[in-house]
Amino acid sequence: MKTVSEMKTVSVRTSRRWAGTGALALGAVLATTGCGSGAQPPPAAASAAIAPVAAPATTGPQTTQAPGEPEDSGSPAAPGGTVGTEDLRRAGEAALKAVPDSTLSSIESKENGRFWEVQVVAADGTEHELDVEAGTGKVIGKPRVEAEDAGDKAEHRRRVEEAKLGYLQAAKKIEAQVPGGRITELSLDGHNGKTVWEGDVVDSSRTKRFIMIDAGDGKILVGR
After folding, report:
1. DSSP state, 77?
2. Helices and strands (DSSP H and E) totals, the chain
3. Cα 55 from Cα 74, distance rounded (Å)
4. What share of the chain is helix, strand, coil (3-state, %, to 5)?
5. ∠ CA(124), CA(128), CA(132), 5° rounding?
6. Band of residue 83 on the pLDDT scale cut at 50, 70, 90
7. What is the pTM for the complete model shown?
8. Residue 223: how many CB atoms within 10 A of its CB?
């Protein structure tokens, strides 16, 4: 029969055995969980890892301007190209230089101001037609001559002789009549037995106006 002291010793040994067995079991569980290749992070960490990034708030339609693209000024571009009096003069001088000893009888802006169509009359009455680039005064190609008879040539000579007012003087009178206007056509013609300069000019409100000037004395015959 065991004494009380022996019974206490057995009880302590039994408790230690169960504690050791529990520790081994817990260690096995932790080892199995930790060594698995598919270990998952804690729920809070996983949620943080996959949380979507919020898109920036917008307050209205957004537009992106292409690099180098001019801003819209809200007003349409001015019609035509370079059609000012200075450019008209440059084109006229280029045509007169291309056909020596000639007189300018007509000049008209073409293709929305990209070039001038100029007609000059040579000393023998032959009419030459040339295209002159706007802005540069460069003659495009060679002068063109249409087949005309002696009567046509005589008429050309008569008109340029009666015109005491040259094309530049006529252009200045038109400028004075329509300040800020742009001449798009100026030609020598006949009206009621007189030789006249007829001009088309676009004013500052983009209205096309017609001016007629007596090529002999420079009087304004029509200004509308």
Report:
1. P
2. 5, 8
3. 33
4. 35, 25, 40
5. 145
6. low
7. 0.63
8. 15
Instruction: Give tens-digit pLDDT for 8-67.
Output: 444 444 444 434 444 434 444 334 444 444 445 444 444 444 444 444 444 333 333 333
**Which contacts (CB < 8 Å, 24+ apart) does range 169-172 have?**
169/218, 170/197, 170/199, 170/213, 170/215, 171/85, 171/88, 171/89, 171/199, 172/85
Q: How far apart are CA 132 and CA 109, in angstroms?
A: 10
Q: Is 156 helix (H, G, I), strand (E, B) or coil?
A: helix
Q: How far is CA 44 from CA 14, 29, 171, in A?
A: 42, 23, 86
Residue 14: enclosing H or E segment and its boundaries? Answer: helix 4-35
Distance CA(82)–CA(19), nearest Å, equals: 104
Backbone angles phi, psi at 122, to 5 degrees: -75, 170
* Other beta carbons less than 10 A from residue 175's beta carbon: 18
